[in-house]
Specification:
about 250 residues; alpha/beta; Methyltransferase, Methionine Synthase (B12-binding Domains), Chain A, domain 1; Rossmann fold; 4-stranded parallel sheet; 4 strands; about 10% strand; binds cobalamin
Length: about 250
């Protein structure tokens, strides 16, 4: 988890644009976010960095404002819409860098039943897809039986569960147990802002990560350990991230 961030240090101009992007998300100012994203694209700036150093920190700040009761659910919804507007513009400018060697394996991804948060899950999906995994996104609020059925139908899949709500803990435990029974060769990763190494141990999962790019590193290590990948499972470049457009 302590590896360096998988992008170059931003220049002072980049830093200014990233701050604007963050502010746009926090203030749910979609016009600002759209315009900054367009500038980022026009300047051929690193779209991946802009997502993870601009949009995501904006949403983290929103979470703090919610904790401090300065923001409530309506603000969260507007901030999420604003983030998605920016993501929609930036995402096409982050492309695959690891096209060699075909698929890196099957990933089943979803937010667990009872949980409708989908931003983190969708970022994990983006990063895994551009790295060469076949990702089946089951969506959010996904019943345990759907995860289990899909896991049993695929060859040594990696099941990625997103969980943002502590109320979902017992459901996650049941999910892991049922996957172990129905698909013993599947591996299970869990993540989300409330997930810790202790959660992973308590649930009997195979791994976790704090963010999407560390999730990719962990997924590659797991897929290599189950024999789904050989050394091609190395991250696509020395920074451990998919390469960028342009
Ligand atoms: C935005 C938000 C919402 C939005 C979600 C919009 C959407 N489309 O997703 C809305 C308004 C819908 C919402 C609703 C609710 N929310 Co809310 N929400 C948030 C908030 C502020 C930000 C979440 C977010 O998007 N973060 C940004 C993304 C990029 O980060 P991330 O999700 O953590 O994802 C990264 C990593 O965790 C990791 N990751 C994610 N998934 C996975 C999976 C795997 C396998 C791996 C390896 C890694 C990984 O990689 C991601 C990308 O880098 C959080 C605060 C927080 N601290 O998390 C609260 C928070 C999650 N919400 C909370 C609550 C309580 C609620 C509500 C109950 C509020 C209410 N009274 O109605 C409802 C619950 C609805 C439900 N049943 O799910 C609580 C949960 C508390 C708890 N311990 O259970 C939080 C923590 C706020 C708080 N501090 O109280 N919420």
């Amino acid at each position: 988890m302590n590896s360096p961030k998988p992008w170059s240090d931003p220049t002072p101009v980049d830093t200014e644009l990233l701050s604007e992007l963050k502010r746009g998300v926090v203030e749910y100012d979609e016009a600002v976010v759209r315009s900054v994203c367009q500038t980022i694209i026009d300047r051929r700036m690193d779209a991946y960095m802009a997502i993870f150093e601009g949009l995501v920190p904006g949403m983290e700040q929103v979470g703090r404002l919610y904790d401090e009761q300065e923001y409530f659910v309506p603000e969260l919804l507007m901030c999420a819409d604003t983030l998605y507007a920016g993501l929609g513009l930036l995402q096409p400018h982050v492309i695959s860098g690891g096209g060699t060697g075909g698929s890196k394996g099957n990933v089943i991804l979803g937010a667990i039943e009872g949980d409708i948060h989908d931003i983190g899950k969708n970022l994990v999906k983006m990063v895994f897809k551009i790295a060469g995994f076949d990702v089946e996104d089951l969506g959010s609020d996904v019943p345990i039986s759907r995860f289990v059925k899909k896991a049993a139908a695929l060859d040594r899949p990696l099941v990625c569960v997103s969980m943002m709500m502590s109320t979902c803990f017992s459901r996650a435990k049941e999910l892991v147990e049922r996957i172990r029974e129905a698909a013993p060769e599947a591996r299970v990763m869990i993540g989300g802002s409330i997930v810790t190494e202790q959660t992973v141990e308590q649930l009997g999962c195979d791994g976790t990560a704090d963010d999407a790019h560390h999730a990719l590193r962990e997924a590659l290590a797991i897929m290599t350990s189950v024999g789904k990948l050989d050394k091609l499972g190395e991250p696509d470049n020395e920074r451990g991230r998919p390469a960028l457009a342009g």
